[in-house]
Amino acid sequence: MSNLLLINKKIKSFNKKIIVNGDKSLSIRWALLASQAIGASKAYNLLMSEDVIAALNAIKKLGIKVNINKNYCEVFGNGIDGFRYKKNLTINAKNSGTLGRLILGLLIKSPYKIRLIGDKSLSKRDFSRVTIPLGKFGTKFYYKKKNKLPLSILGSQSVKGIKYLENKGSAQCKSSVMLAALNASGETFIKAKKSRNHSELLFKYLKIPIKVKKTKRFDFIDIKKPKKIKAFNYRIPGDISSSAFFIVLTTLANNSKLLIKDVNINPTRTGIITILKKMGAKITLKNQRNYRGEKISDILVKSSNNLRAINCPSKLNSSAIDEFLVIFLVAAKAKGVSYFKDISELNQKESPRLYWGSKILNMMGIKTDLTKESIKIYGQPDLKITRLIMIKNYLKDHRIFMMSTIAALTFGGQWKIHDKDSINTSFPSFLKIIKKIDNQSL
Ligand code: S3P
């Protein structure tokens, strides 16, 4: 099968109902927390993507039994401190920043050096953001290249709780220290800039002693080492970050309607809905319910032919951090100049996304003003692309591939998008769902 996607037709009007894959953040957290529980935990609708499979393989290497069945996945945890492995272990986090950073938190007491490696993209990303706070527990880290993978971790036997200020708004950094706190005696105090709070909600559900005090910009989180974690079953809801591509597809398509079933709408993740609604998108949440502290809903989207530019408030950044690439496409079609600021974190992702987002918009004929932490996008409501656009050498960033596909289907032109298999990182059924919505075969 060719790894190149060719698109030269816009999507026709549609009226469909879809289900997206399970949430990536919750799937990885479930696997890691189940590995710390005592007994068999089951997950239904676990995202079976490369990032999550890498997480399952990592805990397997650490001596945890994992069974993947047709309808569920089972992890047989040995409790906190229950990893069993020999010397010279290497863990491969592949493309996953979340796995690479979170698993280090579970290894702060490792008696032997463990090597952590990743793919080309992950090996370009900064790990000091977690190794500096984890170092405060007494854990040692050894790098070959400054702050980049591969690294080795060597734990310390007597770890005590720490105080940590997380000021990037990174849930990966916060969660890495939260997982470390499970192994540290006494209490760990975290002051964290707002970011997704799945770890906090899972800790609460699992009765791990946690207190969260929320203020406007920061959350104050205190965690005490639990005596034990009981095995738990969990049904993973749909991923809003995957839904985002279809929310934008429908918003930009002509005269179309889409219902996305069972999506996690945790308020720390729904920045895209707030931002797009301010821009004139037609999005309604239906059938809202709660599941173990998480909010779930169906999302109804209708096309909009009256989109306006936004001066995006920075306070929405962390809740839309993975969605900016597709939000930029809405800005490309909106009337006026949109401005997104304080988003330098976008360049810390699987590829430098702020740079790539701007580059793709420029290829489409959209003017941008780009700095290291902001972008202005000069919208063109009547934009029609006629030229050939080639998307390649983008470090196989799954979200660049999916953004380009949505751009091709909604703005037209001739597109050659390389590295189709990049979707396997987070959203293996992405192209199947496109085919279900669009009757043209890709
Ligand atoms: C994630 C946190 C975010 C996000 C990533 C998943 C998580 O990263 O970009 O896709 O599951 O904690 P940062 O914490 O680095 O912002």
Protein architecture, described:
Strands 2-15-17-16 form a four-stranded mixed β-sheet. Strands 4-5-3-14 form a four-stranded mixed β-sheet, with helices on one face. It has a four-stranded mixed β-sheet with strand order 6-7-9-8. Helix 5 links the parallel strand 10 (163-166) and strand 11 (187-193). Helices cover 28% and strands 27% of the residues. The protein has helices spanning 24-34, 50-61, 97-106, 128-135, 171-181, 198-205, 240-252, 271-278, 324-333, 353-364, 398-411, 430-437; strands at 5-7, 15-19, 38-44, 65-68, 72-78, 89-92, 114-117, 140-145, 148-154, 163-166, 187-193, 210-214, 218-224, 234-235, 257-264, 282-291, 294-302, 311-312, 337-340, 367-370, 375-378, 388-391, 414-417. With 442 residues, the chain is α/β, with parallel strands linked by helices. The model has no long low-confidence stretch (mean pLDDT 97). Shikimate-3-phosphate binds next to helix 5.
Short description:
The chain has 442 residues and is an alpha/beta fold.
Features:
single chain, 442 residues, alpha/beta, four-stranded mixed β-sheet, binds shikimate-3-phosphate
Structural class: alpha/beta
Overall spatial form: globular
> What small ligands are held by the chains?
shikimate-3-phosphate
**Average pLDDT, all residues:** 97
Which regions have little confidence, pLDDT < 50, spanning 5+ residues? none
In the sheet with the most strands, the strands line up as 2-15-17-16
Number of strands: 23
How many H/I helices? 12
Helix content: 25-40%
Distance between the termini: 12 Å
Percent of residues in β-strands: 25-35%
